[in-house]
Design goal:
By secondary structure, the chain is α+β, with helices and mostly antiparallel strands. Among the domains are: 98 residues, Rossmann fold, CATH 3.40.50; 71 residues, ATP-grasp fold, A domain (Dna Ligase, domain 1, 2-Layer Sandwich); 90 residues, D-amino Acid Aminotransferase, Chain A, domain 1 (2-Layer Sandwich). Helix content is 29%, strand content 26%. It contains twelve helices and 19 strands.
Amino acid sequence: MSHPANKRLLLISHHNSYRIAPYIRAANNLGLEVTIASQGEHSLVAEVANGIHVDFDDTGAAVNAILEEHRLRPFSGILGSDDHTVELAAHVARQLQLPHNPPEAALRSQRKDLARAELALARCPIPMHCLLDLTLPIEKQMAGLPWPCVIKPLNMSASRGVIRVDNEQEFITACERIRQIVSTAQGEFARSHLLIEDYIDGIEIAYEGYLHNGQLNTITIFDKPDPLVGPYFEETIYVTPSGLDNNLQQSIQQVIQRACQAYGLNTGAVHAECRIDADNRVWILEIASRTIGGDCGRILDNENFSIEELAVSLAINQPIEVTMARQARGVMMIPIREKGLLKRVEGLLDAGRVEHIDKVDIIIREGHELIPLPEGNQYLGYIFASADTAEQVVSAIRQAYAKLTFVTAPVFKIV
C-alpha cells in the first residue's frame, strides 16, 4: 500500500510483542508507514530487525536515538504498544510536539502505587491500600490490615502475582510467594515493594474507551460473568454489550474520567478495570493508557473499525469514527489450570461446532511449559462467539470450553 505524504508512525514495542502485527496492519490501513523501536536487533521479524534499536533501560539514550531518526525522516505520530513502552513514547512525543500524554501520567498508568497516590489525592473511589516493604519483617507490617485483602505487584499485568488472603498466615505465605515473582520486575523499588489493598466484594467490569483533548469517550463496557473472588484472579469471559443499566454505565464513565484527570492523561486509548459493590458504587482497580490486552480486542473489530486503528489515529491527531457491531460478542481467555508441558488439545472440532462460536484459537504450541497463576501470565488461547444476545454468547462459550481437554505431561527440571 502507498503511504500518502510519506507519513510515518513510530511504534515503540518489545520485539516479541503480539501487538506488533495488528498495529502494523492498522497503520497501513490508515496509509501510514511503520517504523518499530525495540530491543530486537537480532529479531527474525524483518520489521523489528530493520527498525530502531534502543535500550529501554536507558530512556535518555533511547530518546536521542529516536530523535536522530526523526531528523532523517520525520514521524507523524508516536505510539507505545503496552504498559512498559507508553512512558518512553510520551517522552519522545513531547520532544517532537506530537499528540502525547505527559510522561509522568504514562508512568502512573503502569505503576499501581503511584496511581493509587494520585487517585487518593483526587478523592477518587479506590480501595484502602498501603505499601509493604519486602526488605523489612513482614509480620511487623500487618497491624491494622483488613481481612480479606489483596496483594499485588506494582507493575505486572495479566493478574500475575495477585493473591487474595483472608488471614495473617495466608498473608505471610503469599508475600513470600510473590517475593519470588517480583524478583524479575522492572525497577528496584518494584522488586522490593508490594501493594496491599482492601478486597472489594462485587462484580467486575472492563472498560474500553479513548481520550481526545482530555475528554473520555466510551467504546464499550465488558461484563465479566464469572465471579472473580480469588485467591487468584484469572480473567475468563468478557461479553459486550453490558447488561448494566444506563445510569450505572454513565457512573462508570464519570469515575474513569475523573481518574484520567487525576493521572494527567489527555489522549489515546484507555483500558480500565472496576469493581461494583452491592450498593452500585464504582471502585477503580486499574486505569491503563493502552488498548485492551491479548486478542480480546478482536471482538470489537468490524469492517470499518479496529481498536488498533483508533489508537493509531489518535497518535496522529486524526481520530477515526468508532463503530460497533450490532451483534453481542464475547471472548474467553482460556486459563491455564495446571502446571505441565502441553502435549495436545482435544475437542477442538467439537468446540468449534457449538452454535454461535466463531473461532477457537489455541495460541500456545505443543511442548510449551504451562505455568498457572499467580506465577504465570499467559492464556492458552481464546474462544470467540457472537449471537443476538449476551446470554447466548456466554452460554456458547461455556459449552465450547467444556468440550476442550488439555493433555499435559510433568515438567522435570535438571538441577
